């Protein structure tokens, strides 16, 4: 709360962050407020438990993996800068700027989004999704609703279809080639204040 | 005099806030002031998965897994990290237009000199003129409550005592309400709670009690405190029966229910006032009602309370502010404008269990007050969600992949909470 400028000045290196991620100052303030709301003990860092407190996330079958994506291996906490950097991957792509091959790939390009999704499956980060890793994801999404054999046959079929070089694993290139829906589905979109929908309902009902 | 003053004041405020709104909208495009980070797409799980799989030859009905299926869950997960429907209920409502209180403006931009001057004037008026008046009234109100009820407590006679105690209570609450500059509109007074009944309302702040008690006398239910609150509680009990529990007693649900039942059974006792949500919600929605209050029996009189957020934010965020700073904020807002609707009494029907009854009452209150009816539990402020919700998501997804199980009907909780 309070003036944007005062909140922004609380965050160190905020210009760099905006440059790197492409978020506007208002977005950064929003995210900062959210970060503080999640960081109940005001330590300046988030731990996996703080994410776990979000109910919709706890309900999500792959919620643990999404939380894991925020923490680099070996790290137990994530600070505000890393939090924003990771969320920046999912910003809608900037259509206005023409593609400049000499510049490094922007953070929120289609490729980086796909790379992120790939890492969701590839937990040991060896660049390939092995059959075991695929099975793990399937298991979290389906848990007790299907039998082990069904899970295995689904995994086998998926690998068969996607695997082009017959190494029994899916590499990032093969992942990209599988006709996936547009990576646009991985973004969240700018829109009007999300409270505008409930506000329509809040006209009191007068008899 | 008070009434006229408050009416003039309200009109003046409306004019000022209209002007502020127009200048704000004129000078800035809405994307600057209200940066929405998320626009949720309202599709169900099936619709969205179908979109994700668009280029594949297999359709959803044939089952089969696609690597892109996880994107749906991934996206939902990220959306909930950036914001979620439940946590937002435990912080103040965001207003579409500014009401000249910096406390309600989350993204304050410097807009123009004129607006800042108006705001500055507002600050001076609120803090230097209104606040001292209100504090004086509040002190008078509370001290009279303590003194008056103690005096009445000395009287032996039944009828006179009750009449006097009601008079004293009403007077004190009315003074306190003036102390907060509360303008209250009561609707459907014919449905007012009767003696021996249970009054049930949605909870936004401790001020709810003052608001309701301005129009009738209730028996309060709550925990006995020490200190100033304890003094007030003990003196109130002297003039008419309230139900104060020790902290240890509150854990024993059975003891609580039987005490309340005994109170209701004595038909001469004042109606009990209960807030079944159990915690303060920010007045945009009504959360799950705890069934304990609905197991007592007797007639339930539902009441809907809706604050007008333009004049001041009445929500008590107990994590952020303690009681004293909350009251100070209330006394330095513009005013508290409330609408109270008395709903027709309800009783538990044959074969209806307490939970269903509670939900029925909750929907009635939400509908009347124009609030969102949410199935989430208010205690989620502090606790976590249960495993069954995760299993439900898994079930839905597996019916798409494996294709043989019968599709479940609409998921009860998540669908109703989509924005």
Automatic annotation (TrEMBL), chain A:
InterPro entries: Calcineurin_B_homologous (IPR051875), EF-hand-dom_pair (IPR011992), EF_Hand_1_Ca_BS (IPR018247), EF_hand_dom (IPR002048). Belongs to the calcineurin regulatory subunit family. CHP subfamily. It is found in: Cell membrane; Cytoplasm; Nucleus. CDD domains: EFh (cd00051). The keyword Cell cycle does not apply. This is Calcineurin-like EF-hand protein 2. GO terms for cellular component: cytoplasm; nucleus; plasma membrane. It comes from the Eukaryota. Residues 109-144, 150-185 form the EF-hand domain. One of its GO terms (biological process) is protein transport. Its main location: membrane. Pfam families: EF-hand_7. Keywords: Calcium, Cell membrane, Cytoplasm, Lipoprotein, Membrane, Metal-binding, Myristate, Nucleus, Phosphoprotein, Protein transport, Repeat, Transport. GO terms for molecular function: calcium ion binding.
From TrEMBL, chain B:
The keyword Endoplasmic reticulum applies. It comes from the Eukaryota. Pathway: Glycerolipid metabolism; triacylglycerol biosynthesis; Lipid metabolism; Phospholipid metabolism; CDP-diacylglycerol biosynthesis; CDP-diacylglycerol from sn-glycerol 3-phosphate: step 1/3. SUPFAM superfamilies: Glycerol-3-phosphate (1)-acyltransferase. It is found in: Endoplasmic reticulum membrane. InterPro entries: LPCAT1-like, Plipid/glycerol_acylTrfase. The keyword Hydrolase does not apply. One of its GO terms (biological process) is triglyceride biosynthetic process. Keywords: Acyltransferase, Endoplasmic reticulum, Lipid biosynthesis, Lipid metabolism, Membrane, Phospholipid biosynthesis, Phospholipid metabolism, Transferase, Transmembrane, Transmembrane helix. Its main location: endoplasmic reticulum. One of its GO terms (cellular component) is endoplasmic reticulum membrane. The chain crosses the membrane at residues 111-129, 135-155. One of its GO terms (molecular function) is glycerol-3-phosphate O-acyltransferase activity. It is a multi-pass membrane protein. Residues 408-419 have a biased composition (Basic and acidic residues). SMART domains: PlsC. Residues 197-308 form the Phospholipid/glycerol acyltransferase domain. Pfam families: Acyltransferase (PF01553). Residues 400-419 are annotated as: Disordered. Belongs to the 1-acyl-sn-glycerol-3-phosphate acyltransferase family. PANTHER family: GLYCEROL-3-PHOSPHATE ACYLTRANSFERASE 3, PHOSPHOLIPID ACYLTRANSFERASE. This is Glycerol-3-phosphate acyltransferase 3. The gene is GPAT3.
């Amino acid at each position: 709360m309070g003036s944007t400028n005062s909140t922004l000045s609380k965050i160190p290196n905020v210009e760099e962050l905006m440059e790197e991620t492409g978020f506007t100052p208002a977005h950064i303030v929003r995210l900062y407020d959210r970060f503080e709301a999640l960081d109940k003990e005001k330590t300046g860092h988030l731990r996996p438990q703080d994410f776990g407190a979000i109910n919709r996330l706890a309900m999500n079958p792959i919620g643990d993996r999404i939380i894991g994506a925020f923490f680099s291996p070996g790290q137990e906490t994530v600070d505000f800068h890393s939090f924003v950097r990771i969320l920046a991957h999912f910003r809608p792509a900037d259509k206005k700027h023409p593609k400049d091959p000499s510049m490094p790939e922007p953070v929120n390009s289609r490729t980086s989004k796909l790379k992120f999704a790939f890492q969701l499956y590839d937990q040991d980060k060896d660049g390939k999704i092995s059959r075991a890793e695929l099975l793990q994801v399937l298991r979290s999404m389906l848990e007790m609703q299907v039998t082990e054999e069904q899970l295995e046959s689904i995994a086998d079929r998926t690998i068969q279809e996607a695997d082009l070089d017959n190494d029994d694993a899916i590499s990032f290139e093969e992942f990209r080639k599988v006709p996936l829906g547009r990576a646009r589905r991985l973004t969240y979109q700018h829109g009007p204040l999300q409270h505008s929908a409930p506000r329509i309902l809040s006209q009191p009902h007068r008899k | 005099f008070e009434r006229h003053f408050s009416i003039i004041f309200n009109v003046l405020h409306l004019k000022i806030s209209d002007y502020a709104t127009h200048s704000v909208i004129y000078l800035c495009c809405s994307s600057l002031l209200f940066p929405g980070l998320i626009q949720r797409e309202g599709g169900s799980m099936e619709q969205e998965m179908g979109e994700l799989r668009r280029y594949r030859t297999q359709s959803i009905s044939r089952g089969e897994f696609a690597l892109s299926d996880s994107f749906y869950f991934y996206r939902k997960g990220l959306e909930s990290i950036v914001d979620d429907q439940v946590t937002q209920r435990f912080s103040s409502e965001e207003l579409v237009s500014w009401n000249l209180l910096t406390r309600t403006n989350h993204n304050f931009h410097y807009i123009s000199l004129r607006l800042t001057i108006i705001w500055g004037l507002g600050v001076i008026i609120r803090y230097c003129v209104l606040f001292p008046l209100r504090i004086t009234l509040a002190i008078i109100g509370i001290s009279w409550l303590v003194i008056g009820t103690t005096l009445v407590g000395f009287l032996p006679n039944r009828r006179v005592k009750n009449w006097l105690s009601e008079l004293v209570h009403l007077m004190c609450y009315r003074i306190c309400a003036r102390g907060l500059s509360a303008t209250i509109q009561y609707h459907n007074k014919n449905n007012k709670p009767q003696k021996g009944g249970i009054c049930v309302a949605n909870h936004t702040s401790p001020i709810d009690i003052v608001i309701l008690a301005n129009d009738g006398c209730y028996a309060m239910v709550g925990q006995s405190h020490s200190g100033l609150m304890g003094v007030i509680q003990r003196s109130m009990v002297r003039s008419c029966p309230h139900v104060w529990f020790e902290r240890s007693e509150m854990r024993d649900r059975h003891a609580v229910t039987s005490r309340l039942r005994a109170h209701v059974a004595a038909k001469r006792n004042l109606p009990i006032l209960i807030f079944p949500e159990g915690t303060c919600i920010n007045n945009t929605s009504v959360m799950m009602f705890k069934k304990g209050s609905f197991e007592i029996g007797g007639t339930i009189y539902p009441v809907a309370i809706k604050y007008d957020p333009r004049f001041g934010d009445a929500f008590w965020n107990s994590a952020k502010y303690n009681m004293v700073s909350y009251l100070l904020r209330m006394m330095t807002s513009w005013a508290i404008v409330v609408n109270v609707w008395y709903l027709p009494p309800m009783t538990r029907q044959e074969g209806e269990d307490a939970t269903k009854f509670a939900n029925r009452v909750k929907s009635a209150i939400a509908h009347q007050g124009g609030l969102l009816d949410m199935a989430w539990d208010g205690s989620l402020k502090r606790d976590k969600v249960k495993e069954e919700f995760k299993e439900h998501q898994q079930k839905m997804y597996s019916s798409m992949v494996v294709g043989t199980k019968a599709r479940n009907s609409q998921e009860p909780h998540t669908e109703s909470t989509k924005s």
